[in-house]
Amino acid sequence: MTTAKPIRVTVWNEFVHERTNPVVAAIYPDGIHQVLRTAIESHLADEAIVRCATLDEPEHGLTDSVLDSTEVLLWWGHAAHDQVEDAIVSKVHRRVLQGMGLIVLHSGHASKIFQRLMGTGCMLRWREAAEKERLWITAPGHPILAGISGDYIELPNAEMYGEHFDIPQPEELLLISWFEGGEVFRSGCTFRRGQGKIFYFRPGHETYPIYHHPQIQQIITNAVVWAQGSGGNYNWDARHIEQPLSPIQQK
Ligand code: ZN
């Protein structure tokens, strides 16, 4: 019997609102990243090694050694997208193409890394009115939705995100949100770029306790398992093949 190697996960958070807004600090006293870390650890136990990285750290906590040993990166940002250094974005981008999974959460839709990977503006409509949200399941049986029973997940208070959401056509659409005010939104979308799997997951506005919600935690954990590296050692450099496998004549 073999034991699978633990998935190496890094949770990145800009960690701004929790230190500047008392409402957010009351919900996430140690930061959104710590709640996500605990959720993944409690679901996966010794099947995952989870660490955190934040904007304030040198290289935003995403040094070469951290990135090289990360199989799945989670990204939460909102207020400080423009403070993320382009050089770090380029390194994360390269790692995704090489096979690192990336889970982009909520307002991460406007992050540099998501925009670069999508190639579109990634903007949307929004309203903050603590309205009800129903996330309707459109891909039952998908591994990211494992353990989620029923036809939808209901969040009593959410920020509205509405269409049009300026993303490329997702490879898979797992969840469509309905909001009390009438809008709809593609809330669970998968993409592939190079060898890397990407999951965009909408829930998670900082002034609501959404990352404490058990089903939201379940989906994020499932996404970590789904997104883990498929091509961690992929050599993406161009190679000139001088010696063909079978003899040929130069023409
Ligand atoms: Zn928000």
Topology:
Layout: E1 7-13, H1 17-20, H2 22-27, H3 32-44, E2 48-54, H4 64-68, E3 72-76, H5 86-98, E4 101-105, H6 112-118, E5 125-137, E6 152-162, E7 172-179, E8 184-193, E9 196-201, H7 214-227
Parallel strand pairs: 1-2, 1-3, 3-4, 4-9
Antiparallel strand pairs: 5-6, 5-7, 7-8, 8-9
The structure holds zinc ion.
Zinc ion binds at residues 106-107, 159, 205.
Could you please describe the fold and organization of this structure?
The chain has helices at about 15-20, 20-25, 30-45, 65-70, 85-100, 110-120, 215-225, and strands at about 5-15, 50-55, 70-75, 100-105, 125-135, 150-160, 170-180, 185-195, 195-200. Helix 3 crosses helix 7 (about 215-225) and helix 5 crosses helix 6. It has about 250 residues and is an alpha/beta fold. The radius of gyration is 19 Å and the shape is globular. The chain has a domain at about 5-120 and about 190-225: Rossmann fold (3-Layer(aba) Sandwich), CATH 3.40.50. It has a nine-stranded mixed beta sheet. The protein starts with 6 loop residues before the first strand and ends in a 24-residue tail after the last helix. It binds zinc ion. Zinc ion binds next to loops.
Labels describing this entry:
about 250 residues, alpha/beta, Rossmann fold, nine-stranded mixed sheet, about 25% helix, about 30% strand, binds zinc ion
